[in-house]
């Protein structure tokens, strides 16, 4: 799979990120008041590693991911929670058939089953339907934000980013750095590698 395809998939999953200097102990991020624990994050990271290894996907290859795996996985966990909170606020509902259709759209676009694609981009298989539900929610809110076929990708991401941030502001644990841009990339703190290696909070 070409790296630009992976970056595009990550780019369509816009998240809002407001970095502050403090999060509760054992917390990876707080999303609209909802805590994502370090334990939950680590469980999802380990799942991705196992699933990627099972299909011989090298997540350490250059350009395989836009950031370190822990940050990429956290990016998706935050996106899912933000989208759910946006849906609750705006009364958006999503059916199982709509999720199935969204999965099919990705599979048609990438010519690969999403079970095979997900580990390659840092999504645990157990969270596929949650991620796709988040995508459907964003698709449904897009027209309300003035996003049309004429809207550029960057403009659309900025509008979605703002809507998600307003519905569910995010506080990131500083050890994960600061997300920059709209493609899931992060600005890394110098101590990230050591913190990640021992699993302790920075």
TrEMBL record:
<dbReference type="GO" id="GO:0016853">
    <property type="term" value="F:isomerase activity"/>
</dbReference>
<protein>
    <submittedName>
        <fullName>Peptidyl-prolyl cis-trans isomerase SurA</fullName>
    </submittedName>
</protein>
<dbReference type="InterPro" id="IPR027304">
    <property type="entry name" value="Trigger_fact/SurA_dom_sf"/>
</dbReference>
<feature type="signal peptide">
    <location>
        <begin position="1"/>
        <end position="28"/>
    </location>
</feature>
<dbReference type="InterPro" id="IPR050280">
    <property type="entry name" value="OMP_Chaperone_SurA"/>
</dbReference>
<dbReference type="Pfam" id="PF13624">
    <property type="entry name" value="SurA_N_3"/>
</dbReference>
<keyword id="KW-0732">Signal</keyword>
<keyword id="KW-0413">Isomerase</keyword>
């Amino acid at each position: 799979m070409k790296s630009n395809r992976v970056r595009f998939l990550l780019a369509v999953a816009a998240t809002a990120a407001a970095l502050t200097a403090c999060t509760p102990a054992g917390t990876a991020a707080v999303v609209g008041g909802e805590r994502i624990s370090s334990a939950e994050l680590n469980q999802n990271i380990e799942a991705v590693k196992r699933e990627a290894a099972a299909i011989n996907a090298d997540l350490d290859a250059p350009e395989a991911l836009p950031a370190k795996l822990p940050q990429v996985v956290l990016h998706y966990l935050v996106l899912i929670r933000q989208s759910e909170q946006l849906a609750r606020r705006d009364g958006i509902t999503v059916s199982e058939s709509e999720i199935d259709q969204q999965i099919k759209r990705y599979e048609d676009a990438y010519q690969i089953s999403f079970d095979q694609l997900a580990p390659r981009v840092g999504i645990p298989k157990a969270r596929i339907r949650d991620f796709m539900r988040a995508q459907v929610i964003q698709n449904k809110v897009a027209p309300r934000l003035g996003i049309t076929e004429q809207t550029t990708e960057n403009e659309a991401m900025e509008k979605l980013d703002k809507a998600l941030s307003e519905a569910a502001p995010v506080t990131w644990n500083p050890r994960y750095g600061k997300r920059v841009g709209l493609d899931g990339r992060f600005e890394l703190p110098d101590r990230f590698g050591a913190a990640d290696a021992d699993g302790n909070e920075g």
